[in-house]
Amino acid sequence: MQVGGSQVNVHSRITGPGSKSGRAERRLGERRRGERRVGESDGAALLRPRQVESLLLNIDASLRVHARHHLFGWTQGMLQSVVKHELMVCALRSTRPTSYQVDCFASPWIDPEKVSEVFRRDAAFVAQLVGQWVESDFRPILYGAGGGVPLARGPFAAELQRLGTDSVIAHGTYDSLGKPVSLFVLAATPGDLGQEDAFRLELVVPFLHLAWMRTQLGGALEERGATSQSVDPLSAREKEILRWIHLGKSNFEIGTILGISPLTVKNHVQKILRKLNVQNRTHAVGRALELRILDV
Fold it and tell me: Does one domain contain both 192 and 126?
């Protein structure tokens, strides 16, 4: 067999199933299978130095995603160095078991809205995908490639074939009860996706999920801001004081910086807490960052 680029000859010997050597070999075999399952999928080697660097750069980029256009730029740009794909469908499970909130990010020549709609309507494909993913112990599922799972027939598979992107990897996240939370389906041209891509996708999906969730929060806040003026309830002076609180300054230090008394600062802080409906200064900063009314 081939190990690390070197040829290794393995000589088997006959051992009884109940013998000490037989038990040791079984334990070794189980451990090797487990290690192969966690770290290497059908020959996927450990990440090379450039791949590690690319992964770290992508993790850093994911932390800067706060809006849908940020996510589009990341997934269609830098993320391609980790997993090359032509389109990515993001699906978030809703309160109904078979219902998902769907979004799609794709190359310019693909209509993402059409792909999203077809995916949303193809309940049979989604159900099968989720079932296979759960049965595989929440490991990435590779479709339509050498050694991969055959892609189920249906509207979504037909759309992928029409686009010439029927090489597919699916992976997602799940909660503490083992129920799927989000799914990410990446499609590429035949031959572009393999087991190594599935391994790298498994590493990056947690960050992909969090980045997408931040875009959902940002969208909700934008909608709320369009219908209500209470999203930014703080005055210019209160936001100025909150910035100094975020930097760890005390009331006395803030008063000195702004040329006002510590008591005046305290009164402003109390107003800030009331307006943001929080109990302390730390929560006030967190709430202001969440609402994006604090520039840092």
Answer: yes
Tokens 């499970």 sit on residue: 93
Q: What is the CATH number of the domain that holds 250?
A: 1.10.10.10
Same domain (yes/no): 185, 249: no
Residue that the structure tokens 């040329």 belong to? 259
User: Are the CB atoms for 193 and 142 separated by under 8 Å?
Assistant: yes
DSSP string, 109-162: TS-HHHHHHHHHH-HHHHHHHHHHHHHTTS--EEESSTTPBPPPPSHHHHHHHH
Q: What is the pTM of this model?
A: 0.61
- Give SS3 for 252: helix
How many whole angstroms separate alpha carbon 179 and alpha carbon 161?
30
**Cβ atoms within 10 Å, residue 115:** 25
Per-residue confidence of the chain (296 residues) as pLDDT tens digits?
A: 444 444 434 333 334 444 444 544 554 454 444 433 334 444 445 788 999 999 999 999 999 898 888 899 899 899 999 999 999 999 998 766 567 889 999 988 999 999 999 999 998 888 888 999 999 999 999 987 545 667 778 899 999 999 999 899 999 999 988 889 999 999 999 888 899 999 999 999 999 999 999 988 755 444 444 433 445 688 889 989 998 998 889 999 999 999 999 999 999 999 998 888 888 888 888 788 777 777 65
> By C-alpha distance, which of 81, 87, 112 is closest to 165?
87
**Residue 194 belongs to domain spanning:** 49-225
Give domain status of residue 1, yes or no.
Answer: no
Residues 125 and 158 in one domain: yes
